[in-house]
Design goal:
The protein is an alpha+beta fold. The protein is built from 4 helices and 13 strands. The strands form 3 sheets. An 8-stranded antiparallel beta sheet has the order 1-2-3-4-5-6-8-7. β1 and β2 form a beta hairpin. α1 runs antiparallel to α2. The longest helix is centred in the last third of the chain and has 15 residues.
Length: 224
């Protein structure tokens, strides 16, 4: 069955602010923002930045510093760029910014994957990647910066009901849904195989630290 999605609401359109942590704040959007490298255009409601042509990740991050949208987050962007320059990720080319939140960025790569950058482990209490999560192809850490290459999914339209389906999947795996209300369908999406996936791993958390310990021990016995 072929499924077509139109007018999808980007998953970064609604997000929660954490006033205690560095927040990537959307300022008044610039339709066209001139940088020292090339023009980066703001794309409609998504508050996305798109390069005229794919740029090396470090160049893209530094170009973001020159936009009004991210002028208050230059320190974090420079930290990301410096950290990635010490890894093979520095040669990855970025097409556009597709999402951002309280302490994370999601960038679409030239090859169609998503590079996520965070300042803390994106999986709460270092939980494993589950079958309901968007697939993680590789991951790494440099200093405080974590990076993940994940599959690109098409976010669902807010209010379409898929958030409840994902909450059920999360509970079935023994976790508790977090920050995933009835209108938070932008936190889930469909991959190229039309499988429903969780876009933000922080929406599935251990119930308590003891719960994590019990689950880890159970998995050890299961795999022994």
């Amino acid at each position: 069955m072929k499924v077509t999605f139109n007018n999808i609401t980007p998953y970064n359109q609604q997000y929660r602010y954490n006033r205690q942590a560095p927040v990537f704040c959307a300022q008044s959007p610039d339709k066209f923002v001139k940088t020292g490298l090339r023009t980066i255009a703001n794309v409609g409601r998504s508050d996305s930045l798109m390069a005229d042509k794919p740029m090396l990740v470090g160049d893209f991050l530094r170009a973001m510093c020159d936009t009004r949208m991210f002028r208050d987050n230059q320190k974090e962007l420079v930290e990301y760029a410096k950290a990635l320059n010490e890894t093979e990720v520095k040669d990855v080319k970025i097409k556009q910014l597709i999402g951002y939140g309280s302490s994370a960025l999601a960038l679409e790569t030239e090859c169609g994957k998503v590079l996520k950058l965070t300042r803390e482990n994106h999986f709460p209490m270092n939980r494993p990647v589950e079958d309901f999560d968007a697939e993680v192809f590789s991951r790494g850490k440099v200093g405080r910066v974590h990076y993940y290459f994940v599959e690109k999914c098409t976010p669902c339209e807010s209010g379409c009901g898929y958030a409840e389906t994902m909450r059920e999947k999360i509970r079935e795996r023994g976790y508790r849904p977090y920050d995933l209300g009835d209108w938070d369908d932008f936190q889930v999406g469909f991959n190229s195989q039309c499988e429903l996936k969780l876009l933000d791993p922080e929406c599935a958390q251990y119930k308590t630290p003891v719960h994590k310990l019990v689950q880890v021990i159970g998995n050890l016995f299961k795999n022994s």
